[in-house]
């Protein structure tokens, strides 16, 4: 899935907010077409800023952000569904905004709902759904736009662990089937290693390390119990700890 030109490139990117906060400093990162990369790091280290720059919602104050992917999907922790619209009509919304013909957007919505296992819930209102189902609707709405690059900002962060793992498995099948590139921000080291080909570790505005995950796709759920998997999560955790230990030492000085 790698070895293509980059879908997204950050070259020495700095982001300084007008309030005086520097959220990113000298970040260089590439995501290949069809490649799935996860970013982990403590809260406040600049992960959401990174995604907003990737989406073009912010302009960097130094360096460059380049995106070759034309169609972009963005999935947030909050599914942000319109409460008065049925599941189907929530999924159709993006197509409406793009002024797709009705028949096409209906068909794409049907397909996307089928792919996340929600065909039977198409006529329900969001309030009648569980948190996991609402997140599936949000995924379906994004998939209906046939994205080449998907950005995820802690998408499963508010869900229980079992739902979260199951959604991770579904997300993996989706990108294995569709071949979209992914940049996933998560707090969960296990989720990052399970899903990504590379885990990028951030701390305090910078990238402090990277762990390649050479496990072939599709990864069965049990991969999480393999010694290789545990060793990889340990590597990521050490990078996270190492950088926080440095920070504590710096504060103590
Ligand atoms: N719109 C904004 N204006 C000013 N400062 C911001 C803004 N968004 C985020 N920040 C600051 O930038 C830093 C990084 O934030 P963020 O990218 O949200 O980190 P994370 O997603 O890793 O928690 C934090 O110090 C945060 O307070
Ligand atoms: Mg964030």
Total E-strand runs: 9
Characterize the main sheet: 6 strands, mixed
Order of helices and strands: EEEHEEHHHEHEHEEH
Alpha-carbon distance between the two ends: 45 Å
Strand content: 15-25%
- Ligand inventory: adenosine-5'-diphosphate, magnesium ion
Unreliable residue stretches: none
State the strand order across the main sheet: 5-6-7-3-8-9
Principal-axis shape equals globular
Helix content: 25-40%
Taking all Cα atoms into account, the compactness measure Rg is 19 Å
Mean pLDDT: 93
List keywords for this structure.
253 residues, three-stranded antiparallel β-sheet, binds adenosine-5'-diphosphate, binds magnesium ion
Protein model, in words:
The chain is globular. A six-stranded mixed sheet has the order 5-6-7-3-8-9, with helices on both faces. The chain has a three-stranded antiparallel sheet with strand order 2-1-4, with helices on one face. It has a domain at 200-214 and 230-253. The longest helix has 26 residues, at 227-252. The protein is built from seven helices and nine strands. Helix 2 runs parallel beside helix 4 (131-143) and helix 3 packs across helix 4 (131-143). The protein has helices at residues 47-54, 87-97, 102-115, 131-143, 161-178, 189-195, 227-252; strands at 6-16, 22-32, 36-40, 62-67, 72-76, 149-153, 181-186, 198-203, 206-212. With 253 residues, the protein is α/β, with parallel strands linked by helices. The structure holds adenosine-5'-diphosphate (ADP) and magnesium ion. Magnesium ion binds at residues 47-48, 153.
């Amino acid at each position: 899935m790698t070895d293509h030109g980059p879908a997204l490139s950050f070259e020495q990117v700095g982001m300084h907010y007008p309030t005086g906060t520097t959220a990113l400093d000298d970040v260089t990162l590439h995501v290949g077409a069809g490649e799935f990369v996860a970013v982990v790091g403590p809260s406040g280290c600049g992960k959401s800023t990174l995604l907003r720059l990737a989406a073009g919602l912010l302009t960097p104050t130094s360096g460059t952000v380049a995106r070759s992917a034309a169609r972009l999907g963005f999935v947030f922790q909050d599914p942000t569904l319109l409460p008065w619209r049925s599941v189907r009509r929530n999924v159709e919304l993006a197509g409406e905004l793009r002024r797709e013909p009705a028949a096409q957007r209906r068909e794409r919505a049907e397909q996307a709902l089928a792919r996340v296992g929600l065909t039977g819930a198409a006529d329900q209102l969001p309030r009648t759904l569980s948190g996991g189902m609402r997140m599936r609707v949000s995924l379906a709405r994004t998939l209906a736009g046939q994205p080449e690059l998907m950005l995820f900002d802690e998408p499963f962060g508010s869900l229980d662990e079992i739902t979260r793992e199951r959604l991770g498995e579904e997300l993996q099948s989706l990108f294995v089937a569709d071949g979209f590139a992914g940049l996933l921000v998560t707090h969960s080291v296990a989720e990052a290693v399970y899903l990504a080909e590379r885990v990028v570790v951030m701390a305090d505005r910078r990238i402090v390390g990277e762990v390649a995950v050479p496990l072939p796709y599709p990864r069965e759920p049990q991969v999480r119990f393999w010694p290789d998997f545990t060793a990889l999560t340990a590597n990521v955790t050490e990078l996270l700890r190492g950088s926080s230990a440095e920070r504590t030492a710096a504060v103590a000085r």
